Amino acid sequence: MGLSVIAPPAGDSASPAHRRARRAFLVSNYMILGAASGCGFLTLSLRLVPSVDGFLLILLHAITVAAAVAGCAVIAAPDPPRGRVYTAHMSGTVVVSILQGAAAVLAFSRTSEFLADGLKSYVREEDGAVILRMVGGLGIAIFCLEWVALALAFVLRYYAYVDRECAGNPMRRSAKVGGEDGTGNWPWLFQA
Known about the structure:
Shape: elongated
Mean pLDDT: 77
Keywords: Membrane, Transmembrane, Transmembrane helix
Helix content: over 70%
Oligomer: single chain
Largest sheet: none
Order of helices and strands: HHHHHH
Low-confidence stretches: 1-10
Structural class: mainly alpha
Number of helices: 6
């Protein structure tokens, strides 16, 4: 039932490339959603309740989940967002992606110091290091998937613009004028 959103709405005049980009965007957001919720549960398993750094790490994963859900909801809407809503969503996604990458690098490069000094976990240090490295690995995956989702969001924005401005006219969608390639009136030396 969750992947039924991927199907284009009835009467959708979007091009096949637009529909493929929409599907890829949804799949990448679903993967971000799964990885971020996994990171959140792994971080909760470290028992970081009294730690400020632990709270911020859990908050980062919650914001990542909210951004992925918002991305799925936006693409499923019949009218794509414009203006400030689109700008705010893209800016938030960039900030979340950068913070996820920074947390992942911190989890990999300074695992023992981050676990002992910053997080103040109640879990044994060896187990905590393994869990923190898993969170770091998922953080790197989220970082990469967020940038894929951003690139696909820009592609979808372009396709929405083309579909809106060209109003379904296939001649206006291509770069060819009048359906010719323009090589018919060139000298014989340049014609292939």
